[in-house]
Amino acid sequence: MKTNKMKELIVNALDNGTVIDHIPSASVMQVARILKLDESKSTIIMGMNMESSKMGSKGIIKVRETYFKPNEINKISLVAPQATLTIIENYDVKEKRIVEVPDEIVGLIQCPNAKCITNHETVTTRFHVVNKSPELKMECHYCEKVIGKEDLKFI
């Protein structure tokens, strides 16, 4: 006798928009904050502490009728470098990719060095990524201060 295994969606399917999946559970709210989702008029579904065979637990964010720009995707990569981004159109997956930490980060984060020129003059911040894994490390182009994920302050 055959048994049918029914898959139950814990989070509703999305008709059109973007799904950010495989976010560490502890980083879901930070991702929502840096994307300014609290200011969005779109329908937003967030899940935290969801079961994951790869991660143990994970978070997910679904945003209806919203497609993120490259600089927003770069922000996601700094907070959740293993996250996947899926573009949905008419309930079908149109594109799926893992976010990637860029080699250079321009104008996204503030340098924590109070003496850095970027904190005193109208100079766009620029960081060179010196280590992507296992621990993110970036160096300020101007003052050479090395910072990690815990030092991130988004502009």
- Kindly estimate the percentage of residues that lie in beta strands according to DSSP: 25-35%
**Would you identify the regions where 5 or more consecutive residues have pLDDT less than 50?**
1-6
Supply the CATH architecture of the largest domain.
2-Layer Sandwich
Count all strands and give the number: 9
Number of helices: 2
Number of domains: 2
Name of the CATH homologous superfamily of the largest domain: Aspartate carbamoyltransferase regulatory subunit, N-terminal domain
* Overall average residue pLDDT: 91
Terminus-to-terminus distance: 60 Å
Strand ordering within the main sheet: 2-3-1-4-5
**Main beta sheet:** 5 strands, antiparallel
Report on this model:
The chain has 2 domains: 17-98, 2-Layer Sandwich (Alpha-Beta Plaits), CATH 3.30.70; 104-154, SH3 type barrels, CATH 2.30.30. The protein contains 2 helices and 9 strands; from the N terminus they run βαββαββββββ. The protein has helices at 28-34, 70-79, and strands at 17-23, 44-52, 56-64, 84-89, 92-98, 104-106, 126-131, 137-140, 146-148.
Topology summary:
Blueprint: E1 17-23, H1 28-34, E2 44-52, E3 56-64, H2 70-79, E4 84-89, E5 92-98, E6 104-106, E7 126-131, E8 137-140, E9 146-148
Antiparallel strand pairs: 1-3, 1-4, 2-3, 4-5, 6-7, 7-8, 8-9
Keywords:
Alpha-Beta Plaits; SH3 type barrels; four-stranded antiparallel β-sheet; five-stranded antiparallel β-sheet; mainly beta; 11% helix; 9 strands; disordered N terminus; 35% strand; 155 residues; 2 domains
